[in-house]
Amino acid sequence: MSIETTPLGEFRPCCLAEESILNENKKPYDIAKGDSITDAFDSTYMNNLRQEFLDGKMPKTCAKCWSLESAGGTSKRMISNKKFGINTNKLDIKFLDLKLGNICNLKCRICGSWSSSKWAQEEIVLGNKHAKDWLKQGQWPRKEIDLWNEIQSLLPTVEYFEFTGGEPFLIEEHFTLLEKSAVLGHASSQKIHYNTNGTTYPKRAIESIWPEFAEVEIAFSIDDIGKRFEYQRHGAVWKKVVANVKKFNSLKSMYKNIKTQVCCTINIQNIYYLDTIADWIETQDFDYVFYNYLHEAKEWNVQYLPQKLKEKIAKKLMKYNNNSFHKQQLRGAVDFMMDKNLHSDTMDEARRSKITASDNFRKESFAETFPQLKELV
Hey, where are the domains in the chain? Predict the structure, then answer.
């Protein structure tokens, strides 16, 4: 019942799927080539995927969820089944996950040109042969009028929107869509989920759009604190983001439909410091806390760490005992890290190369920012 538009204008069953939805010629459906949401949703590919689940199989495109579940974690598949129920018949689209291009004001280390226009500008200079094409592809939301008309026609069945990035609060077109949903009388039965980098405070939406909806959940992507946060999410200022978090949390007393969440994406840069991050989270007023596991880009996936460093990290995190919820989550992070030994010299070199290129370009230092991890570079 769900479908995702990717920042580059293709479609996936969900944001964690390994591949895009393919047409009869085994090519991805492409918004820029005139393919519609309905084309992808009703495709042979999607019907085959649904049948695989009905037959009790484990589709290959869902490998990220299977990997997390094998390590004892709670996957997006499990969360979605709990949220929407398990259905045995094809339904209309209820869950619309819209990644509306790659407009973004940050260059997060775990991201790239496919999701960030700022990253594309850097990678073009650094010689990434795909960056210029990705920058152009990510402009589709400002060009494809037919798709916006189609989304409007789907509004009667949509129960849940998810807006991620780029940075959704910088993408004005989605606010226009939400205004239309309110005017058409659908908003009161629809929920919205955002993933935001926390640098922007959309006053117009807060005051005149979001109050019309059943629920608006704002999830802040915060993977670390202080200078480490600023290194990982280049362009963000930690104090400003914290101030915005407090402003959003204060809205909850005025607008009962607003909820806040922190989403911490566990990756190589922050796993050693998860205990410190957990303690900071507990000083805030979030309704929900979600620890997300980075699978790609692989150079930041904690399963690719050398075994000696994994043991060092595990020893530190297993000592955490300040809060039972975070204690459980940190142990889950250790289990996921240890579940597979994917370390390779090739991946080490790819990571060093990527870190060094951006460090030189941005005048930053991985080794100085993360001294306990400096052996990686």
Answer: 7-75
